[in-house]
Amino acid sequence: MGEWIGIDRRARRCYGFDEISLVPGMQTINPNEVDVTLKIGNMKFGIPIMAAAMDGVVDVNFLIAMGKLGGIAVLNLDGVQTRYEDPSQILNEIAEASTEKATELLQKLYQPAIKESLISKRIEQIKAANVPAFISCIPQHAERFGKISQEAGADCFVVQSQVSSAKHISTEYKVCDYGELCSGLKIPVMIGNAVTYKMTLSLLELGASGVLIGVGPGAACTTRGVLGIGVPQITATIDASAARDHYYKRTGRYVPIITDGGMRIGGEICKAFASGADGVMVGSAFAKAKEAPGHGNHWGMATSHANLPRGTRVRVGTTGTLEQILLGPANVDDGSQNLVGALKTSMGSLGAKNLKEMHDVEMIIAPSIQTEGKVFQVGQRVGMGK
What we know:
Blueprint: E1 3-6, E2 9-11, E3 20-23, E4 38-40, E5 43-45, E6 49-51, H1 60-68, E7 72-76, H2 88-96, H3 102-109, H4 116-128, E8 134-137, H5 139-152, E9 156-160, H6 178-184, E10 189-194, H7 197-205, E11 210-213, H8 223-227, H9 233-251, E12 257-260, H10 266-274, E13 279-282, H11 284-287, E14 297-299, E15 313-315, H12 322-327, H13 339-350, H14 355-358, E16 362-365, H15 375-380
Parallel strand pairs: 6-7, 6-13, 7-8, 8-9, 9-10, 10-11, 11-12, 12-13
Antiparallel strand pairs: 1-2, 3-16, 4-5, 14-15
Helix pairs in contact: 1-4, 4-5, 7-9, 10-13
C-alpha cells in the first residue's frame, strides 16, 4: 500500500478538501426534509456544527447565542475567559495589536494564572441562559477542571491537545488517564485530536463520548509548518470513521466523530460529512461573526505558547451575524454563510436523507474541482476565486 518515495520507504497518498468532489446519486430530496441531527451522549442537536474552543471565537455570550440557535459552542478554560475577571479589554488589546507584535502580546497576556473560581462562574453564566455548556481544556488540567466543571453544571467536557494518544509518556508532570477521566465523570467526555484509525479506536475504547479529528488544518494553526505533522482532513476523517464503525459493530456503542478544522465554507463542511463525520468543529468561519469576541481576529490555541508557538493571529474580518453564518440568509457569494443551508441543500442534491446516508455518497478524486470553468471568478476574485 502506498507509493515508493525512496529505497525501502513507501508513503500513502492522502486527500484534502480541494482534491475531492461529491457525486449526485439516483434521487434528490427536498432540503427542508433532510435530518442533520447530531447526538452526543444523551443530547441531541439539530445543528451538527460546533464553534471551536478558541478565544477569538467563543466567549460566554457567543456560546449562549449559538445555543439559542440550536448549535454548540465550546468555551476554552485555558484562555482569557478564566484568567481575567473581565476579558473584554484583553480581547481589544489583541485585536488592536500590529501583526508584528501580535504573537508577543499573546504570550504576555496568557501568562497570568488561571483562576479556578472563574471556571465555575463562566459555566454558571451559561447555564443561567438555559443552553448546554460545553467546556474545553488541555490534558494537564483535565482531571481538576473536569471535576470543577461537572460540579458547576457543565453538560460536556472536551479535552483537546495538539495530538491525543492513549499512552502519553512524561516524567515532568502527571499524565492524564483518559480511561479514568471518562469513567470518573458523569457527563460526556470528548477527546481530541487524532488523525488515524488506530488512535481513534484506542480513544473510543477508553470511553470517549466523541473524538475530534484533525491535526494542523485550522486557519490560524501553524503546526504543520512548525512541526511537519498532520494528515489531510478527508483521509483523516475516513480513517477515523472506519474506527468508529468497527467499534460500533463490536460493542453496539455508536460514538460521534467530529472533524475539527480546515473548513471555511459550506462545500468543505459537506465533504467532511461525506467522509464519515457526524459533526464538524469550525473556527475561522465563526470568527467572522459580529458576536465573536475577537472582533474579526482569529488565533490558534497554541499561538501564545511561551517557547514554540504553533499558531498565529489572522485577520478574517466581520462579515455578518452568527445567525447569518449559521442559518442565513447569506449576503456573500463564497459559501461562508448559511452553512446549515449549504449542508441540507447538498444532502438533498446527493439524495441523502440523513447524515448516516451522507456517509455513503460517492466521492471522486477531482483536483480540478476548484478551478474548472472558474477563470472569471479567479480573475475578478469573487465567489470561488476569493
